[in-house]
Amino acid sequence: MGSIIIFLLFAVSLALQGSLLVLVNPGGVHPDLLLVLVVALALLSDSKRGALIGLAAGLMQDIVFGAPLGFNAFIKVLVGAMAGFLAEEINRDFVLAPMLLVMFFSLFNDSLPFLLKEFADIRQSFSLLQYLQQFSPGRLVMHFFIMGLIYPYLCRAQKRRLLFPQAESSGK
Amino acid sequence: MLAFLIKRKRMLTLFLVLTLLLVLTQRTVVRQGITVAEEALLTVVAPVQGVFGRFARSVEGLLISVKGYQFLVAENRRLQDELAATLVLEARLTEFRHENHRLRQMLNFEARSEHQLIAAEVVARDPSGWFQTVSINKGSLHGVAENLAVVTSEGLVGSVLAVSPVTSQVLLLTDSRRAVSAMVQRSREPGTVGVVEADADLPGYLRMINLPRDANIQPGDTIISSGLGGIYPQGLVLGYVLEMVEEELGLFRFALLRPAANFNRLEEVFVVVPSAAPAQNNEGAF
Q1: Which of A17-21, A149-153, B73-77, B234-238 has the lowest average pLDDT?
Q2: Could you read off the pLDDT of A85-137 as tens digits, one per residue?
């Protein structure tokens, strides 16, 4: 049941991300809904599940948007694993912690593609500094508020054990 | 050692997964075909994308209508005038076509087969900015195949990257993984055949590289596909020359191009199906 809900969440996020959210682009900045979901879900579980969620979300993103297979998966596995690692350190009922953490992971999510593109020998359209200056501040703010909107619902769903039936329902 | 590995099993697994993903990324920079699992996922996500895509366009259309009512009225009047002029031209064109057909028959020429166009709607685009791809609502069930050219009324947009039964992904010209063999429409000299690719320094622009220093090309020239390589039919407009730039070593020049198609507002596109089966080669694959 949990896996189906998570898959549906990812599918709807991907569809929203590629269509409706493209309209919400102040200064050409688009939110990465999938990243917010991965961080939120990983913070509600643990590092192992976080990595698996990141893997699934990243692969889906690669497939749906035609990126090299593994490109987004690599980034989101790392994000999921790190966020899951922090899951035990935060109070899951306190929404500000995920809101702040998602800003850190957004910065990470924006920086890593440069290394990956270098590794895969794909030409870069921006320098890392240019990209971070132009796009990251806006995205960080967007992700902060999106996390504030969706995290309470996901937290409530997890308390009913709808997302991860075997996981503990509350952290610290 | 074994005890250490068992203790660090989780870290080791993560490291292995990451290594595998890195290798996978490098090997699939330009994908050749999609797997059954990918096809299934695209088939599931495509209808949802279609619904959201249409909704997004309605919202966008509504916002534009509200913002620019006066502009729309003026544009509507201008378009009606243009339509009237076009109808006259079309009538003349039909006459010329009939005459051409009749003359060809008289000379016993075979009529040149025209390309078939499949109209498609853009339902989603990759918002990340790392890759320039869009999803369209037509797939293999509608006759779309990999590597077919995709155009708008303005010019070439890109080519089909991956196909599932009901949806396809289009790799845009502005993606750094794509390059097209091209030539200058005015001169059509074989010596000025170059390669058009995304400009890494100016996102959204193109550059035509490998041009000899004495190439007959100047600002304002129209650049069209040369047809070499077999993926893109000859004569599709790619863009217009903005300026000529000397390369660092001075052996070649490159031309900075403004793309013919507006990549920021892609709503409806056409997939070009050649009369003969498309040749399978690696034009544009890096």
Answers
A1: A17-21
A2: 998 888 888 889 999 999 999 988 888 888 888 777 777 666 777 777 777 78
Rg (chain A; Cα; Å): 15
Is ipTM beyond 0.90? no
**Domain residue limits, chain B:** 36-107, 114-275
Beta carbons of B208 and B192 less than 8 angstroms apart: no
At A102, list the tokens: 């998602």
Phi, psi of B121 (to 5 degrees): -100, 140
Cα angle B286, B236, B56 (rounded to 5 degrees) comes to 80
User: Quick check: helix, strand or coil at residue B116?
Assistant: strand
Spatial separation of the C-alpha atoms in residues B171 and B209, rounded to whole Å: 20
Single out the residue of B156, B164, B155, B177 nearest to residue B136, CA to CA.
Answer: B164
In this structure, the number of other CB atoms found within 10 A of the CB of residue B157 comes to 27
Domain ranges of chain A: 2-159
| B281/chain A closest Cα distance in angstroms | 19
If one counts every other C-beta atom within 10 angstroms of the C-beta of residue B14, the result is: 17
* Cβ–Cβ contact B62 with A under 8 A: no
Q: No. of H helices and E strands in chain A?
A: 8, 0
Angle between helices A71-85 and A47-65 (to 10 degrees): 160
Q: What is the dihedral of CA B207, B209, B212, B214, to 10 degrees?
A: 0
Across the interface, whether the CB atoms of A70 and B20 are under 8 A apart is answered yes
- Taking the Cβ of residue B121 and every Cβ of chain A, the question of whether any pair is shorter than 8 Å is answered with no
Q: In the CATH hierarchy, which top-level class contains the domain B114-275?
A: mainly beta
What letter does residue B161 receive in the DSSP assignment?
Answer: E
Instruction: Judge: domain A2-159, CATH 2.60.40.
Output: no
A32 neighbourhood in chain B, CB within 8 Å: 127-128
Task: Report the alpha-carbon distance of residue A122 to residue B179 in Å, rounded.
Answer: 13
